[in-house]
UniProtKB/TrEMBL annotation:
Entry's Gene Ontology molecular function annotations: alpha-galactosidase activity
The protein's Enzyme Commission number: 3.2.1.22
Domain Glycosyl hydrolase family 36 N-terminal intervals: 22-249
Family, per entry: Belongs to the glycosyl hydrolase.
Protein name: Alpha-galactosidase
PANTHER family: ALPHA-GALACTOSIDASE C-RELATED, GLYCOSIDASE FAMILY 31
Pfam families, per the entry: Glyco_hydro_36C, Glyco_hydro_36N, Melibiase
Amino acid sequence: MTEWELRTARSVYVVAESEAGLELRHWGDPARRREPPVARRSPFESPADAAPLELTAAGTRHAQVSELLVQGPDGVDGALLGLVPGSVAAEGDGTALRALLRAADAGLEVELHVRTSAAHDVVERWAVLRSVRTTGDLQLTRAFGAAWNVPVGPGARVAQLVGAWSREFTPVETDLAAGQLVIGSRQGITSHLHSPVVALTPRDGGGGEAYGVALAWSGSWRMLIDAVPFREVVRVSGGPDDETGVVTLAPGQEFETPHLLGAWSPDGMAGLARTWRAYQRGVLARGTGVEHRPVVYNSWYATRFDVRVEHQLALADVAAGVGAEVFVVDDGWFTGRTSDRAGLGDWYADREKFPDGLAPLAKGVLERGMRFGLWVEPEAVNPDSDLYRAHPGWVYRAGERPLTTMRNQYVLDLGRPEVEEWAAGTLRRLLTEHPITYLKWDMNRAVSDGGRPGDPRGRAWSVQHTRAYHRLMALLREEFPHVTVEACAGGGGRVDNAVLALSDVVWPSDETGPRDRLAIQHGFLSAYPPSVMSSWVTDEPDRLDTAPVSAEFRFVVAMAGVLGIGADPLAWDAAARTRARELVALYREVREVVHTGVVTRHGDPRDAVYAVQYTGPDRVVLLVWARPGAGPVRVPLAGLDPAARYRVPGRIPSEVLDGGELSEAGVPVPFTLAADCDVVVLDRVR
Ligand code: DGJ
C-alpha cells in the first residue's frame, strides 16, 4: 500500500491508500512509529467501519459515525466513496497532499487536502465537496471536512473549554471511556458555550504525547469525539452545525468545508498549549508587532450609550496622559443610539451627539497623540432603525414564524449579496471618511432562526452568514491593512482559529472583574496566545470570586495579554492617574516578551499564588497574583537553560541568579508592586 509522509517540526503525519479512501498510518513522534494495529472488526461492520479513514460517508461506513451525510434527489441516502486511482499527489515540497474520492452512486466528488508546516506541529485539513451530477441537487445534512484518528485509545481524557456569556474559557476534563462527546454552537457565533478545540491524552495518564483538534469556523458548529469501545484511535471530527443547516449542491457546485487543525506535542497538555500558541502567532497572525496591539482606551464602561464629544475628549485627555495609544469610541456614537433599543444599522454619527460629525472627536484624539478607533456591529439591526424601515426583507425569517429579538435586535441576512454589499460599503465609507486605524467588530446576539423561504440554497443560511462575515473581515485586511481589527461577540462569543487569522486581537469576555477575568484568561491561554488577548483595566466588580484586590492587581491581569483601559479615568484622583501611568509604562517595557515569549502557566488562579511566565531569548517576565496574606514566595521557573545567568534589571546591588537555581529553588517574589501581585523581570546576562 503506498504511503505518504508529511513532516511537521517534530512529528510526522502518515497516510496510506486503502480501498475505501485514505487512512491514517501514524501521527506523532517518528521514533514511535509502529505497524498500525489492525482494528478487530465484528461481523456487524464493513471494512470501512474499522479502518482509520481520513474522511468518509454514511453508505461507505455502515455501523460507525461518518463525516458526510448525503441525500440524493432520488430518495437514496449515503454515498459509496472510493479513492480515485492515482489521485493522491504530494504538493508543496512534501508539506501538502491532495487526494480525490469519488462516489459514482451519489454523483459526489471529495477532494481531501492536508497541509503541514515545517516550523510547527500543526496539520491543517479540509475537503472540497463537489456535485458531479448533471441533474438534481445533493443535500449534505452533514458536511465535515475531516476526521482525526487520534492514537490515544481506547477512550481518552478529553479537555475542553466551556462557558457562558461572561464566563468563557473554563477548562473541564472528561474521562471518555467509550461513546461520543458532542460539543458545538447553535448560536451562529462560536464560543460562549464551547470553544471549538479539544485536547486528548490517554486515559491512563498524560505527560507524554498530547493531541489537539480545533475547528477554524466562526459560526454554528459541531465537533464529535467518538470513542468506539476497544479501538486504539479516538475519532474527532467537526464542521458546520448539522442541526441548523444543510448544504445543498446543485449540479456542478462545490463546497469547501471549514478547515480543521490537528496539533501534537510530546510534552503533555502544557506542550500542546505551546504548540497552538506558536502556530497562531507564527502562521495565523499577520505579525506580533505592537502596531496592531496598541494600549487601547475604550470608553464603553465609562459612558455606555451616553456618548458626547466634550466628555469623550475629557476622557481622551486622561487616557493620553496615562499612556493609551488608541482611543476607541464604543457603542452609542451612531444615529438614534440612546440605548440598545434603537439605531443599530444606521452607521452615521448621531447628529445630536455629534452636530459636526465624528471629525472634531477624531481630530481631538489625534491631537492628543493617540490613534482613533470605532466600534461597529455590522451584522445586526434594531427594528427601530432607518435601515430596517427601508429594508425589512434584509433580516432572517423562518417562514411565517414571528421574528425573535435578542438584545432588541434582528440579524441581517449576510447571505444575500445585496446585504453583504451594504455591509462592505458601510465599512469602506467609515474607514475612508474618518482617520480610523482601530475597528472593534462586535456581534451581540445569536445568529439564530434563519432561513430564506423560497431560496433552495437558503437552508445553508448559517454557513453563508459565516462565509460573508469572513469575507468582510478579509476585506478589512486587504483594503485597510493599517487598521487594527478587534473581534468581539458580546465578549468571547467568537474566538476561534478562523477569527485569529482575520483579526489582530480578540475580546475574550465581557467579564472584567479582575479575579474572574484572571480565571477566564487562564483558560484562554491554554488554546490561544497572549498576543491576541485583549484585556482592559476597569472598575467593574467581580461576580464569582469577590476577594478584594488592589488597583495594581487589575493592571497586572491586563498585562498578561494586550493591556487596555476601560475604566472611567475621570473618576481617578491624581495619585491613581500617576500610578496608572507608571503601570502602563511597566507594561510597555515587558509587552514584547509577553506577546512573543513562550508562555507557562504556574498553578491555577484559585491557588494562593498563581503566576504566568513569559520566556523570551533574553528576558523572562513573571506576572504573579496572590491571595491576601500569601507572603513572599518563590516560583520555580520553567524552560530555562540551567547554565544561563539572569539579573533583575535596575536592582542594586545587582543579584545574579542562574537558570538551574531559578528552576529548582525558584525566583523570589518580593511583592513590591503590591501585596497581592508583582511583576518580576529577569534579563539574561549570558
Ligand atoms: C459587548 C462588548 O463585548 C462590549 O465590550 C461592548 O462593546 C458592548 N457590546 C457594547 O454594546
